Amino acid sequence: MVSVRSAHTVGSIIRAYGADQVRLEITYGKHLAKNVIPSRITLGCMVEALASNNDPEGAYDIIQQALAEPQTKGLVNAVTYSSVLKSFNHQKSFHRVWDVYDEMIRGKVEFSVTTYNALLDVCARSGEISRAEPLLKEMAVQGITPNIITYGTVIKAYCSANRLDQAFAVFSDMQANTDLHPDEVTYNTLLDGCARYGSFDRGLEVMADMKKAKVPPSNYTLSVIAKLANRSKKPKLAFQMVEELRRGTRELFALGIASRNVFT
């Protein structure tokens, strides 16, 4: 039997096992039993593997084991924690997310934009929009520049909370004050917010902006447009709007304006 004593090799084995949780735990346990100090990559692989396997508590325990040992304490960073945050979020264990967040603050973990994006996504999924604004202020204080995912997640959070004015304000701020360009996901998020609350005119504005920016629509975009028309009590217009956008033969915005008097 070959004796594995390299942290890098163990990390590769962990990645290879993927979702085989039992083997993952055995491999990592043997790795520690041999007194081979894991690398940051090895630790991260194990935490990510367990978190991806819907075992955030197991992943969290691995972090706690590392923090308990002087030689491995320094291996834990924001990236390691982010795997756990995302897994708790997907399981809707939002209280555990904030428990871990408080622990990170106490431990003076250096956050990254990815960490904040993960936390903001929790705000969007849980409806705790009141937590989003302090997080954005923290980012500013630490000099962390928001990226397209940050803006998209904040827009999603505001849309989920039926605060379309703030969602559009964030969208406008991104366009006016950054070099970032809205992508299909950002436009779809705004469209879905408009559809959810029957804000037809604003939805048309988003579609016009999307067309102007030459961002191609996806199948999801088409489904949201149909939802927008239906929620706005314009079911007949839904088919026409989807078909026109799909073909790209007319100006959708002009179509919407011309159709308002017909279907209202």
From TrEMBL:
Domain spans labelled PROP1-like PPR: 76-201
Signal peptide span: none
PPR repeat positions: 77-111, 112-146, 147-177, 183-217
Pfam families hit by this protein: PPR_long
Alphabetized UniProt keyword annotations: Repeat
Protein name, per record: Pentatricopeptide repeat-containing protein At5g61990, mitochondrial
Native organism: Cladocopium goreaui
Lineage: Eukaryota, Sar, Alveolata, Dinophyceae, Suessiales
